[in-house]
Amino acid sequence: MSVTEKFLRYVAVETTAGEEKSDAVSNPKILDLSELLLQELQAFHPSEISFNRYGILDAKFDGEGEKARVAFLAHMDTSPQASGKDVRVTRTVYEGKPIPLGNGLVLDAKEFPSLDHEVGHRILHTDGRTLLGGDDKAGIAIVLEAFEELRKEGAKTRPLEILFTTDEEIGADAGHISLENVDSTYGYTVDGGDARAVSVETFTAVGMKAEAKGKSIHPGYAKDRLVSAANLLIRFQNDLPEALRPEETEGREPFYHLCTIEGSEDHAKADYILRSFDENEMKSLVGLAKLTAHRINDHVGYEAITLQFRDEYHNMKEALEGHPEILKEMEEAYRLLSLPMVYYPVRGGTTGSQLSFRGLPCPNLGTGDYNCHGRFEYVDEDEMEAMVGVVKALMKA
Ligand SMILES: [Zn+2]
């Protein structure tokens, strides 16, 4: 099987993640793909293989040479934002002209400028009814194809670990990996877009809950007495810098994002996410939010607004700083294949940003998948093949 044949086999299995994190895999259908991949991994005769209750597969392979054991990670589930049922794939050689997908959808470079560098490439896309599932079945296909090719070539491989996870799309996979069983010094998530982009930086993420307690009085007699909880939170939101909203920021700029807000005169609550690439800057964001709440509380004369913060994940950069060999090895792999490579900061988190913080540094590699999570998703087959080459180079002894 080629990498594309593998890919088509995996996208044929519906693996849409459920909406909620829970104590089991979010959608039992995902286990169908786990079982299929379990069989495929077993055919390579791993020295050890495990399958946990979330359907996460962890296969270890003995190797040769001095290099440390390295893990390759990809996820089986697809985004709940679009259907992944009965995916029908078409290949189009992109000639620079818009591609009609079907169902009234057109892939057009005017809207999706990433197509500009795909001219002459083979594009895999759907008929516009579903997402494609390249995120992250392209990653799974790349890892398995790379390993299979090395085996066929009789090449010497280093000690390896292949981890296929579930429920990445709802942020649950890193927590569901049995890290005590993971035996690698570091890893690579193969879960990015553009094949040229390597990510060694992600956001540092903090969640913030704001709650306001009001003093509710009949509005007819409210003069100088009513304190509306809803109004307090509206004021809190408006007092945070407008320039630090997601719609105003890009690149390495941080933000406060108001996700939900609800309430009445008596009680109101809001959920925020705070994002930054820098731990100190994150402390400033937290500090400014506290100060903003404090000022409002001072004004009304009681602890009207309370804030709660929770650590979500951290920029993987810090964890990677202790491992310069990882960057060297990646740069070497791209150079060997004469592929361009750019470091690309992810304005989000990856499985690797959680794992890096838990002791398994994990940069992210591209797969050739674009427009993920929706019906415009496509995979550049040429890029997917190029990434097989990169992963092979990283797997070699
Ligand atoms: Zn993904």
Describe, in plain words, how this protein is organized in 3D.
The protein is an alpha+beta fold. It folds into two domains: 3-201 and 315-395, Zn peptidases (Aminopeptidase, 3-Layer(aba) Sandwich), CATH 3.40.630; 204-313, Alpha-Beta Plaits. Helix content is 30%, strand content 23%. It has helices at 3-11, 30-42, 134-153, 173-176, 229-239, 279-300, 317-321, 324-336, 351-357, 381-395; strands at residues 48-51, 57-61, 70-75, 90-93, 99-102, 105-107, 122-125, 160-165, 186-190, 197-198, 204-213, 255-263, 267-276, 305-313, 342-343, 364-365, 369-370, 378-380. A six-stranded mixed β-sheet has the order 1-2-8-3-9-16, sandwiched between helices. Strands 4-7-18-17 form a four-stranded antiparallel β-sheet. Strands 12-13-11-14 form a four-stranded antiparallel β-sheet. Helix 8 packs across helix 10. The longest helix has 22 residues, at 279-300. The chain is globular and about 85 Å long. The protein starts with a helix and ends with a helix. The chain binds zinc ion. Zinc ion (ZN) binds next to helix 3.
Structure characteristics:
397 residues; Alpha-Beta Plaits; 2 domains; 10 helices; 23% strand; binds zinc ion
Brief write-up:
The protein is α+β, with helices and mostly antiparallel strands and 397 residues long. The chain is built from ten helices and 18 strands.
Produce the secondary structure layout.
Blueprint: H1 3-11, H2 30-42, E1 48-51, E2 57-61, E3 70-75, E4 90-93, E5 99-102, E6 105-107, E7 122-125, H3 134-153, E8 160-165, H4 173-176, E9 186-190, E10 197-198, E11 204-213, H5 229-239, E12 255-263, E13 267-276, H6 279-300, E14 305-313, H7 317-321, H8 324-336, E15 342-343, H9 351-357, E16 364-365, E17 369-370, E18 378-380, H10 381-395
Helix pairs in contact: 1-3, 3-10, 5-6, 8-10
The structure holds zinc ion (ZN).
